[in-house]
Design brief:
Blueprint lengths: L1 E4 L3 H15 L6 E5 L6 H6 L7 E5 L6 H11 L4 E4 L11 H9 L5 E5 L12 H14 L13 E4 H4 L11 H9 L4 E5 L14 H19 L5 H5 L1
Parallel strand pairs: 1-2, 2-3, 5-7
Antiparallel strand pairs: 4-6, 5-6
Length: about 230
């Protein structure tokens, strides 16, 4: 399980018992990829070294959520990686439903979605909900999934290795869907919750980064160098 963090120590402290409970039946690790948070996140994770499943990948400075996930995939030890936010907005209890289709060979990528029956985005305020839904609409020509903005997913590491991943911004799931072309893709519903602690980091810089990322993915999928398979999927 990959948890990218920046100023997320309080969130991790609240999330820890839930994560350890749901991961107990699995041979698993929790890889915290921290961008040198000044709140003591790295020291807190190091202090859990004796608990067995917690591991730290410390980066020297903030370089963005998506690149943190890419680094985490490269450093992970398991065959399947689950990516989720560390702020408590993604329920770790969904883990068995994310892992099941990949372990059984029914899917290469499993996405937690707010927009399939049973899902909801109750944890978003009106402004963030409007931004998120607009961003999702802009991305839908690139992929048939219902919630291309979701950052909560599971993928086989061999699938993520099919292409060079160089995302701009924070939507690594969309990057994998477009560049690595997992098939089939399964979606499971989840309810996006309010974050446990701290504040959202979404701002103008993140929005601009997302738009730049979209432009690159559109060029990849529909540009003159895109192969027939890329343009028809």
């Amino acid at each position: 399980m990959i948890l990218p963090t920046l100023h997320e120590r309080a969130c991790l402290e609240a999330l820890r018992p839930r994560l350890e409970r749901v991961l107990a039946p699995y041979a698993a690790e929790v890889l915290v990829v921290d961008d040198n948070s000044p709140d003591g996140t790295a020291a807190w994770v190091r202090g859990l070294g004796g608990s067995g499943i917690w591991r730290l990948l410390l980066r020297d400075r903030p370089r963005g959520l998506a690149s943190a996930v890419v680094d985490g995939i490269g450093a992970a030890r398991g065959r399947i990686v689950v990516v989720m936010d560390a702020d408590g907005s993604h329920p770790p209890e969904l883990l068995p439903r994310l892992l099941g289709p990949i372990r059984d060979g029914r899917a290469e990528f499993v996405l937690a979605s707010r927009f399939v029956p049973g899902g909801a985005d109750a944890g978003l305020g009106p402004l963030r909900r409007a931004i998120s839904r607009t961003a999702a609409a802009l991305a839908r020509p690139l992929t048939p999934v219902s919630d291309p903005m979701s950052g909560f997913f599971a993928v086989d590491r061999s699938v993520a290795a099919r292409a060079h991943l160089a995302p701009v911004g924070y939507k690594i799931g969309l990057e994998i869907l477009v560049r690595c072309r997992p098939e089939p893709v399964a979606e499971v519903p989840y309810i996006f919750a309010e974050r446990v602690a701290g504040e959202s980091k979404l701002g103008g810089r993140q929005v601009a980064g997302y738009l730049g990322h979209l432009a690159r993915l559109y060029r990849f999928r529909y540009g003159p160098r895109a192969g027939p398979a890329s343009r028809t999927r």
